[in-house]
Design a protein that fits this description.
- This protein is α+β, with helices and mostly antiparallel strands.
- Helices cover 35% and strands 15% of the residues.
- It is built from 32 helices and 31 strands.
């Protein structure tokens, strides 16, 4: 057969030749045809794991490469220089540090799947030049389209090409024999999906290796208004884009300058990672030097004047490739789709910049002020860092984790180079346009959210300028009242707080009132002045042992307005010797009708009003109906002690002026609360550097945040972003989809159900003195494994919102070039693992789309042997050693595969599949068992902790017997008495033992030793019975 194949290659026949018709009906195995790979691709072959190399040279990938190459061979232009340059670039990329990690035993069953997936590239390299051209097309489609759309395009290309060949045969046109044979081969949708998946995985790693050049290239070409070529059908559009790009690059590599008119060439350069020098006409010729060593110096690409955007407003969207796909759905007319933008995936730092752009847009910050607003964010974070280090009672940066990602993105942007800064501005622009609803959106009727976290609100800044919490709250409420229609005689501020066995309370004016001075006006009357008044009291609680002086020392140093000179322990504060409040020149609000401030000795001094009784409740003549509390957000009381009415209250007369309704008061004050005096963001927004945290009880901050906080959706979204950042924190080289930014994050199903304590700043502001336990760390603690995988699925795809309940059996997730593995599968079973603990591995398992790996329902265990010679069961000699060095974990897949419904009805290629994945335990080449690792989540394993300090020898079991278990057969055929399996330091063997015994319903008879050697004397003495299975 192989001789016949050699004769077939290169022949051209007519459809009328009966021998040829018979020949093409043969079931030709394309894996028999193998070429020597070009030397430029040698490094790629060396980098492949044995599994991937076998697939690329003899398996399904090689067959797909051969069939596709032969099918399109007559349409592919001859481009030897392009293939040589591409091979050199691919080898350069694969040899870059960190791009192609090697699997180690720490990767457990995934060791053979670690590394960059170059399978399709090596399959093409060993299948001939035509197949390499097919690989280049796969990279273009993977760059421009999502997996399901790219697979649909591949199906359409293959079907149309097969019909085209059949038509040529029917019309007696000359067709190459190999092409005709390929047209009669079955090229399944699954093969095409896997072909796309391999190219897609390669792109992710190649982008990481060429990040600087890639980003610079995209920044330049995003403003180029070139369109994709327009032809009649999807088939012809794709073929035209592909072949035009290959021909253009070949001419460039020959040293011929090119002026391009088809955007497909730019897409190809991005997908193939070749970067020619550019001349961009934007008012004038601007040369851009990439100095790519693979291209000749004279290989210059020109972008014409008529095709360049004016992007000064930052509102330009890159032109998209539009196609009509007839193989995307099972039923219906062809679907019109558009390609992704060039920058459709970003790292997590860049995602924070996008989120920051959305926040600035919601703040109403203009594009011209965005850079200065980012500078403010950086400065603000630096300030928070300073106060958290200076004050022991201030907020810690860990408690401000929701802000950390945004601040780090702002800090990175402020220190970025010129090229990086352009990229940052592009991301901010994208956020302004697309991410307005990503974290939150303004409330109904509001155009913007209060900017700078309310720190440019005049009332807040006035309050924060005070050193003491109580003074801050009164100043804040007075600033709000200043812009309201309330008159000085119709409003009152009250503050009450329990303090060291006393009730501390104040009454204060909300609006200033007139007081006579010693100066006279020209008409002889005394000149009035506008002043505020406040009265401070301290009342001992019944049966309290509180010390008056201790409590008074913690009060504000502000004097009350009673007698002319008031000490910290004046009589009106103590409440011990006086039953009546004396107030010099009292405001009208506090005067009784019969009071004219003319009381004389022996009572209070002259001009002192005796009208407000010293009581914590309102006096009878006040509480009889003149006042009522306005139900405004700004009037919130502290939630520390509702029954004691602690905190601030704002009161106003019940009956307003005849021209003003109660709603008018409310509306006016709400407007004052939300008013923002927009600062010049070139200047730093003020920060409360002088606030004395030692004296703050956060009543004022609670009230101010209650007035200005965003919606609960904001906090939910920030918590979700914080959790996702935590998951990706140690994952280098990964990217997330920018589609995510256009969707409200707070609607994600994976966010765990929260309670009030999970929103750390819902009741307190940035300067709260006590946040614990109200921290976003609660989000992390409540994340289960299924929540974590649902979160990863959303960020990897940008759109999947999967219910965690559907992922309860998932142990690993594979997407593009990333494998995310549950921590329980790659950790020693003695180490507690949380649901948030997921490890990232560079690699893939070779399946298209997103794959959720689940274990079989009933994993198998090999039966015990009847050979009595292989079981020894020797007495334990107290030596900690590993007798299971030949044990290893392996991963394989069954044929069971099920699509997960994501709501897309009628779409042929589902994005997510469950794949039955078997984690097997092997010992020295012999299969032992298949494992259900999730059993460790459902069952708690007893831990034997380290040594004690009893002073004993440590090796006396108090008469108890302990048997050594030094092989798997000795475990499967147990001694019937306590035994210790010696696999010290071998996490894979220890994991296998725990899983196996749980599967055999032995969890109650199982204990595992920690790192430290236990005290056997104490263990034998105080343990009634030893576990039947102890794992070392």
């Amino acid at each position: 057969m192989s001789v016949g194949v050699g004769k077939i290659t290169g022949s051209a026949v007519s459809a009328t030749n009966e021998n040829t018709i018979a020949l093409v009906n043969l079931n030709l195995d394309f894996s028999l045809i193998k070429c020597e790979a070009p030397q430029e691709f040698a490094a790629v072959g060396r980098a492949l794991s044995s599994r991937r190399r076998s697939n690329a040279e003899d398996g399904s990938s090689h067959k797909a490469a051969r069939k596709l190459g032969a099918l399109f061979e007559q349409l592919i232009p001859s481009t030897p220089k392009l293939l040589k340059a591409y091979g050199s670039r691919a080898s350069d990329i694969i040899e870059s540090p960190g791009i192609n990690p090697k699997g180690t035993p720490a990767d457990g069953p995934f060791e053979g799947f670690v590394g960059t997936d170059c399978t399709s590239m090596w399959a093409a390299a060993t299948s001939g030049p035509a197949s390499l051209g097919i690989h280049l097309l796969a990279c273009m489609l993977a760059r421009a389209w999502d997996a399901k759309e790219a697979t649909s395009i591949w199906v359409e290309l293959v079907r149309e090409r097969q019909r085209e060949i059949e038509k040529a045969v029917a019309e007696n046109q000359i067709v190459a024999t190999t092409t005709l044979i390929a047209a009669r081969q079955d090229i399944s949708r699954s093969e095409l999906g896997n072909w796309d998946a391999s190219a897609r995985s390669w792109l992710r790693r190649a982008d990481q290796a060429k990040m600087m050049e890639h980003n610079q290239f995209l920044l330049i070409v995003k403003n180029v208004n070139l369109q994709f070529g327009a032809t009649k059908t999807t088939y012809h559009r794709v073929l035209s884009a592909w072949t035009v790009a290959m021909a253009c690059l070949e001419k460039l590599l020959e040293g011929l300058p090119q002026q391009i008119s088809d955007r497909a060439v730019l897409l190809a350069l991005s997908a193939w990672h070749l970067y020619p020098d550019l001349v961009v006409f934007s008012g004038q010729a601007v040369p851009v030097k990439f100095k790519d060593p693979l291209l000749p110096k004279q290989a210059i690409m020109t972008l014409g004047l008529e095709s360049f955007h004016n992007s000064s407003l930052g509102m330009v969207d890159t032109p998209r490739w539009s196609l009509s796909l007839s193989h995307l759905r099972y039923y219906g007319d062809p679907v019109q789709v558009e390609s992704n933008a060039d920058m459709s995936r970003v790292n997590f730092l860049q995602l924070h910049l996008v989120a920051l752009g959305g926040i600035l847009a919601n703040w109403g910050i203009s594009r011209a002020d965005m850079f200065h607003a980012v500078s403010w964010m950086k400065t603000f974070w630096k300030y928070l860092d300073e106060i958290s280090a200076h004050f022991s009672t201030g907020p810690s940066l860990d408690q401000l984790s929701w802000l950390r990602g945004l601040a780090e993105a702002a800090t990175y942007m402020r220190g970025a180079s010129s090229i990086e800064l352009k990229l940052c501005m592009s991301l901010l622009d994208f956020g302004r346009r697309r991410a307005r609803n990503f974290l939150t959106k303004p409330a109904l009727g509001d155009e913007h959210i209060l900017p700078f976290f309310g720190l440019c609100n005049s009332a807040i800044m006035a309050g924060l300028s005070e050193e003491i919490d109580v003074d801050a709250g009164i100043r804040y409420l007075r600033e709000i009242a200043k812009t309201s229609p309330i008159k000085e005689c119709k409003s009152l501020i009250c503050f009450i707080q329990e303090l060291d066995g006393f009730v501390y309370y104040e009454y204060a004016t909300a609006r200033p009132h007139e007081r006579k001075t010693e100066k006279r006006l020209p008409d002889g009357t005394f000149k009035p002045e506008l002043v505020h008044a406040r009265w401070i009291g301290l009342l001992k609680i019944d049966k309290s042992n509180g010390n008056l002086e201790t409590a008074a020392s913690k009060l504000s140093t502000t004097s009350c307005d009673c007698e002319s000179s008031c000490a910290i322990l004046c009589t009106c504060r103590s409440g011990a010797t006086i039953k009546t409040l004396y107030w010099n020149d009292p405001p009208i609000l506090f005067q009784q009708d019969e009071c004219h401030a003319t009381i004389t000795k022996p009572g209070p001094p002259a001009s002192v009003c005796q009208c407000l009784e010293l009581r914590t409740e309102w006096p009878s003549h006040v509480s009889s109906g003149i006042y009522e509390e306005l139900k405004l957000e700004l009037c919130t009381r502290s939630r520390i002690d509702e029954s004691a009415m602690t905190g601030f209250s704002f009161y106003v007369m019940e009956k307003p002026d005849r021209f003003l309704t109660k709603r008018a008061y409310v509306t006016a004050m709400e407007h004052a609360v939300k008013t923002c005096v927009k600062p010049e963001v070139v200047e730093e927004v003020k920060t409360p550097m002088g606030l004395k945290w030692e004296l703050s009880q956060y009543h004022a901050s609670t009230m101010m945040v209650g007035s200005h906080k965003p919606s609960d959706d904001w906090f939910r979204s920030l918590g979700a972003l914080f959790v996702a950042a935590h998951i990706y924190r140690n994952v280098s080289g990964t990217s997330v989809s920018l589609k995510l930014a256009s969707r409200p994050l707070h609607k994600a199903h994976w966010i765990p159900v929260q309670d009030a304590t999970d929103y750390p700043i819902a009741d307190h502001n940035l300067y709260s003195a006590s946040w614990d336990p109200r921290s976003y760390s609660n989000f992390l603690c409540k994340m289960r494994r299924e929540n974590t995988f649902a979160c990863i699925a959303m960020f990897e795809s940008g759109e999947l919102n999967i219910l965690p309940s559907e992922l309860q059996s998932v142990v690993a997730l594979c997407s593009d070039n990333s494998i995310f593995v549950a921590g329980v599968l790659l950790n020693d079973p003695s180490i507690p693992v949380q649901g948030i603990d997921v490890r990232h591995i560079v690699g893939n398992i070779g399946h298209a789309g997103m794959t959720m790996m689940i274990s079989p329902d009933k994993p198998r265990v090999r039966p015990r042997s009847d050979n009595y010679n292989i079981v020894q069961h020797a007495m334990y000699d107290f030596k900690r050693e590993d007798n299971f060095k030949g044990t290893s974990l392996h991963l394989s897949f069954t044929e069971w595969k099920l699509a997960l419904s994501t709501g897309a009805i009628g779409v042929i290629d589902q994005e997510v599949h469950f794949l039955e994945s078997v984690v097997s335990l092997w010992d020295r080449g012999q299969w032992v068992a298949d494992l259900d690792v999730l059993g460790m989540e459902r069952n708690q394993v007893h831990r034997i902790e380290g040594a004690c300090d009893c002073g004993g020898s440590g090796n006396d079991l108090a008469g108890k017997e302990l048997i050594s278990l030094d092989s798997w057969e000795e475990l499967l055929d147990p001694p019937g008495s306590p035994g210790i399996l010696r696999a010290h330091g071998n996490w894979a063997a220890r994991l296998g033992v725990v899983c196996l015994l749980i599967q055999k319903k032995q969890i109650e008879n199982l204990s595992i030793m920690a790192d430290k050697t236990p005290c056997w004397s104490c263990l034998g003495k105080y343990s009634r019975t030893l576990s039947e299975f102890i794992i070392d």
